[in-house]
Amino acid sequence: MRARLIFVLSAIGVVAGLASAAFFAVHRKPAPPVFDPAANPYERGVYANGIIESEQASGANVTVFPEVSGTVVGIGVREGQRVSRGTPLVHIEDSVQRATAAQQRAQAAAARAALEELRAQPRPETLQVVVSQVTAARATLKTSSDQLAKQRASYAADPRSVSKLTLDDATNAVHVAQANVDVAERQLDLAKAGAWIYDIRNQEAQYAALVKSAAAARALLRKYTLRAPVDGTILSITATVGGFVSPQGTLDTYTQSAAPVVVMGRQEEHLAVRAFVDEILIARLGPVERLEATMYVRGTDVHVPLEFVRVQPYVSPKIELSNERTERVDLRVLPVVFRFARPAEPPLYPGQLVDVYVRGR
């Protein structure tokens, strides 16, 4: 009985082994790839990594940074929105600068009032007072002179009628009255002359300085509203209401590095692609004026012919997308800019990575 059981189990094992061998020996056709890998379309093509960007006469996308620091209190646009030059983008809290601008404006107004006061001199009321003082001084002189004449006449008639002391006092009173008339007349001339020219010039300089300070305060106040520097499309907004921004930008919570507050581009019929050619392959490029290239969109079978625009004539270090130098050797690349008509499909966006082949010599 035991021998029969062993024989049956052995037979089952043999049958299972033969069935497994037959099953795994069957050749299955591999599944076709989702898309064909990018193939070099040229006999001597040079491969380069590329990144799509807005088409600009120079540079890449427009990065917008504020010139002041502060807390964001409002954002007036959204990503993907087309804007015109001067459109308000981000509003920064500006209460302190508003108060400073108002103070500078008030100081300039006070300086202007003081300058107008100097230019308006002499004041008619002041002139009338000085004229009255001259009249009073002359009247006092007339009284003193008459009194002296009487004293002298009496003394001439009878020297005993007037003492020498009284006669001297009357004479001194006339001299004092004459001096008072001279002072009053000089004061009248000074009043008629108006403000001193040097006082006016000094006040003019102070007023001009305060006007410029007020203008600078207003100009700085306008910078608390970040505006679009060009016509274009909002590609990215990293600022948030309640967040802090500075001339260095804002903190990107994903990369933990500084980023532009707003990135703008030109979403027109054409886009640009910046291809980075390794320095060891630069010598294999053909004549610059006749460069021919093709772009392959990753994840698709789409390839787009490129039109040469310019070479950025500066070989720069190769970096990763995180903006960190990760290469162990000093690899450098030459940026070459091409343009292409935006295809209907698939949708392409600035910042998208592509494969680029450039016809080599």
Number-wise, the strands total 17
User: Quick one: biggest sheet?
Assistant: 6 strands, antiparallel, barrel
Can you count the helices?
5
Indicate the CATH architecture of the domain at 45-56 and 266-359: Beta Barrel
CATH topology of the domain at 45-56 and 266-359: Elongation Factor Tu (Ef-tu), domain 3
CATH C-level name of the domain at 45-56 and 266-359: Mainly Beta
Question: What features would you describe in this structure?
Answer:
- Strands 1-12-16-14-13-17 form a 6-stranded antiparallel β-barrel. A 4-stranded antiparallel beta sheet has the order 2-11-7-4, with no helix packed on it. A 4-stranded antiparallel beta sheet has the order 6-5-3-8, with no helix packed on it.
- 38% of the residues lie in helices and 24% in strands.
- Helix 2 packs antiparallel against helix 5 and helix 3 (124-157) runs antiparallel to helix 4.
- The protein is built from 5 helices and 17 strands.
- Among the domains are: 45-56 and 266-359, Beta Barrel (Elongation Factor Tu (Ef-tu), domain 3), CATH 2.40.30; 66-92 and 225-262, OB fold (Dihydrolipoamide Acetyltransferase, E2P); 122-194, Helix Hairpins.
- The protein is of the alpha+beta class and 361 residues long.
